[in-house]
Amino acid sequence: MKNLLSSLGLLLLLLSACAPQGPRPLTVLTHDSFSVSENLIRQFESDNNVKISFVKGGDAGSVLNKAILTKDAPLADVLYGVDNTFLSRALDARIYSPYESPALADIPDEYKLDDQNRALPVDYGDVCINYDKSYFATNNLALPQSLSDLTKPEYKGLLVVEDPATSSPGLAFLLATVATLEDGYQDYWRQLKENDVVVVDSWETAYFTNFSASSGHGPQPMVVSYGSSPTAEVVYADPPVSESPTASLVGDGMCFRQVEFAGILAGTKNRAIAEKFIDFLLGKSFQEDMPLQMFVSPVNPKAAVPDVFIQNSQIPSNPASLDPQVIAINREAWIQGWTSVMNP
To answer: Domain limits at 222?
Structure first.
């Protein structure tokens, strides 16, 4: 009897070990603009026996704040969406655990801004001034070719920008003026103010209320937005259009390049599957999905970019850029400098 019971116990143990396990959980903290095709996520889940939960936490700055405040008890396993304007702050807070993904071998060095591989580059995009093609054609008005051109009388009152204290693209455009004009950035903003530049709190207000080419049909034919916004105008057009009504000004230093990163949060209990998800983000399938999901460009050069994105998005040859550490040190002072000029 004793041997029989022992045998039954061993059998039950073996059956338990062989029983299929439920999917492992993986939580990904992202900004509100994160989007991915459902079929890609389902395939990743199936291939890796995992169930992914996406937690959206506001804009990039808000998401980073959440990750920092909860770093001793992380809300997630992976964080996606910190960009180069906040990168140094994230690294200084030590929220990430390093991971040298094999997929990094395909990524150009220009996007790798953390040599310890705590934050890995996933995508990039350019904050640029979009313009209303019809307005400039109808008024026979030449396009501005530089930041300094925007201060000329012929463009008086034609540009709407976002407050850098409350808007990510607003901050990026401020950084473009700092990178291009250095200590002269405040004088430049004084000239823009004298030329009746319009300032609003958010990108949504600027683009959909003030911009003349958007659904708001506002008074300004130029708006600080993204180099990929013209593609969105085509993709979401109803009725369909074959050509975007907008385009971007991409003269030297007129755009600011934003690179977005993903990283494994320190303290995760799901390290192995978190690594696989990072590999997935840098891999060809996800990289090819991004352009028409989030209207950003892939950092993986092996990823094919859709024709509609190529035809309507303009990528500047010489975008403005600043070292993330320099941004971290000076960000608040630059914003205060801007505020002292625009809202004395």
So the answer is: 126-256+315-342
